[in-house]
């Protein structure tokens, strides 16, 4: 689960991290009031969407002006005018894709006198099973670009969970960023607090870009991008309340109600599979035969008929779907349950596109019998390769 920058800064402030004063607003009048409250003489007007690259992004609508999604304002009137231009308009960044995202809220923040900018993030290192820090002197830039052009400017280290952040970690960070004296001490304090926040709130990623040194010689968190482990949200009701459904795909929201692992993609073939590995293999083989998957959907090992029905309905609700592939290898998941779910869903929503079903495993013969006797126009498949070729062929034929 992702949250907005201003929400992330509020979370970090709870742990004593140095963040600038600011206010989230939803209208030009609120922007004006926030600017007067903050006092100026410089304000930053930031679009709040779940995507990076906002400053370099562009609005689709001419009324939003030529500037990006993060703007410096030098008067209260300019703050209000920027808010008028940006709210309700669609911002396109490298991370949103060409469709962009509508800006429904802004963050008005006091300006900062910046002496230098750094990059700092925390994430889970799957190789070591530990929380890792990634730091760089190239703050304010896309870390992917830095990794490509100047990988020597990136330092990564993992923290032993038995000890947590230790003084030597602070010295490593300070040396890498060229910080000395009081700033070096602040760096140790900052990474310690970030690590504490990361663990306490079950974060999966915490990115500060940039972490700045102000001209009066202090560190400050100037941006905050945070993702949380969705499997741990039951422990954090306060974080769940920060969820912004307008930033999420409607189909993904519906899938979450049934505890389905669903991610919308841009293709034409809807997929319903059990098991993440098999689901990824299904997406790959669809691409191999010349089409694109419309979604990743893992119904899980213990799915009920109700969940399978819901999954099928979510797939068919996507207008881009021109064909559906059901690929089930029944272990815990029984093939007859899948078959009953598919039939129930088809009867509820109808079937307007080709449907290929490949079943194997527990109760496979019963599952096949249920589908055969249903009277549905289903294309059976013997294995994954056969299923992929049949659904791709059916979609191309229908086109």
Provide key terms for this protein.
Rossmann fold; EC 6.2.1.5; 13 helices; single chain; six-stranded antiparallel β-sheet; alpha+beta; 399 residues; four-stranded antiparallel β-sheet; Dna Ligase, domain 1; D-amino Acid Aminotransferase, Chain A, domain 1
Q: What can you see in these coordinates?
A:
One of its GO terms (biological process) is tricarboxylic acid cycle. The chain is of the alpha+beta class and 399 residues long. It has three domains: 21-110, ATP-grasp fold, A domain (Dna Ligase, domain 1), CATH 3.30.1490; 114-239, D-amino Acid Aminotransferase, Chain A, domain 1, CATH 3.30.470; 249-398, 3-Layer(aba) Sandwich (Rossmann fold), CATH 3.40.50.261. It has 13 helices and 19 strands. It has helices at residues 5-14, 28-38, 76-86, 143-149, 167-177, 181-200, 237-240, 250-257, 276-288, 305-316, 335-349, 364-372, 384-398; strands spanning 22-25, 43-47, 58-59, 70-73, 90-92, 101-102, 106-110, 114-125, 130-136, 154-159, 203-214, 219-221, 225-228, 261-264, 269-273, 295-298, 323-330, 355-361, 379-380. The strands form five sheets. Strands 8, 9, 10, 11, 12 and 13 form a six-stranded antiparallel β-sheet that branches. The chain starts with a helix and ends with a helix. The mean pLDDT is 91.
N-to-C terminal Cα separation, in Å?
37 Å
CATH classification, class level of the largest domain: Alpha Beta
The main β sheet shows up as: 6 strands, antiparallel
Proportion of strand residues: 15-25%
| Protein structure class | alpha+beta
Q: Overall pLDDT, averaged?
A: 91
In DSSP terms, counting alpha (H) and pi (I) runs of 4 or more, how many helices? 13
CATH superfamily of the largest domain: Succinyl-CoA synthetase domains
Low-confidence stretches: none
And the CATH topology of the largest domain? Rossmann fold
Number of domains: 3
CATH architectural designation of the largest domain: 3-Layer(aba) Sandwich
Helix content: 25-40%
Quaternary assembly = single chain
**Envelope shape:** globular
Number of strands: 19
Cα-based radius of gyration, to the nearest Å: 25 Å
Catalytic activity: (S)-malate + ATP + CoA = (S)-malyl-CoA + ADP + phosphate; GTP + succinate + CoA = succinyl-CoA + GDP + phosphate; succinate + ATP + CoA = succinyl-CoA + ADP + phosphate
Domain ATP-grasp: 9-254
GO biological process, one term: succinyl-CoA metabolic process
InterPro entries: ATP-grasp, ATP-grasp_succ-CoA_synth-type, ATP_grasp_subdomain_1, Succ-CoA_synthase_bsu_CS, SUCC_ACL_C, Succ_CoA_ligase-like_bsu, Succinyl-CoA_synth-like
């Amino acid at each position: 689960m992702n949250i907005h920058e201003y929400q992330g800064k509020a979370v970090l402030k709870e742990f004593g991290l140095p963040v600038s004063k600011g206010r989230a607003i939803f209208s030009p009048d609120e922007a004006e009031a926030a600017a007067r409250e903050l006092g100026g003489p410089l304000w930053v007007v930031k679009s709040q969407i779940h995507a990076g690259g906002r400053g370099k992004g562009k609005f689709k609508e001419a009324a939003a002006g030529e500037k990006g999604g993060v703007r410096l304002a030098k008067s209260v009137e300019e703050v209000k005018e920027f808010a008028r231009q940006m709210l309700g308009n669609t911002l396109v960044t490298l991370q949103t894709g060409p469709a962009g995202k509508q800006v429904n809220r802004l963050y008005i923040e006091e300006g900062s006198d910046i002496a230098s900018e750094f990059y700092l993030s925390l994430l889970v290192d799957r190789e070591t099973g530990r929380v890792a820090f990634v730091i760089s002197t190239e703050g304010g830039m896309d870390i992917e670009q830095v990794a490509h052009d100047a990988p020597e400017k990136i330092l990564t280290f993992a923290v032993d969970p038995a000890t947590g952040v230790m003084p030597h970690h602070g010295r490593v960070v300070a040396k890498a960023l060229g910080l000395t004296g009081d700033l070096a001490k602040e760096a140790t304090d900052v990474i310690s607090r970030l690590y504490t926040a990361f663990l306490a709130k079950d974060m999966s990623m915490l990115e500060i870009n940039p972490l700045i040194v102000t001209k009066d010689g202090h560190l400050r968190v100037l941006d905050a991008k945070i993702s949380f482990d969705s499997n741990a949200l039951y422990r954090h009701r306060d974080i769940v309340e920060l969820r912004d459904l307008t930033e999420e795909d409607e189909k993904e929201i519906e899938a979450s109600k049934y505890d389905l692992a669903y991610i919308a993609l841009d293709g034409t073939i809807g997929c319903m599979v059990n098991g993440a590995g098999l689901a990824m293999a299904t997406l790959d083989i669809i691409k191999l035969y010349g089409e694109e998957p419309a979604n990743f959907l893992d119904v899980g090992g213990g799915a009920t008929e109700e969940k399978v029905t819901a999954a099928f309905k979510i797939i068919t609700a996507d207008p881009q779907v021109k064909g559906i592939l059901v690929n089930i290898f029944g272990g815990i998941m029984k093939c007859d349950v899948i078959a009953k779910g598919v039939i129930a869903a088809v009867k509820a929503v109808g079937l307007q596109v080709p449907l290929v079903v490949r079943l194997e495993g527990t109760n496979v013969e019963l599952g096949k019998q249920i589908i055969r006797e249903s009277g549905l126009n289903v294309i059976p498949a013997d294995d994954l390769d056969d299923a992929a070729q049949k659904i791709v062929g059916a979609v191309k034929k229908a086109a």
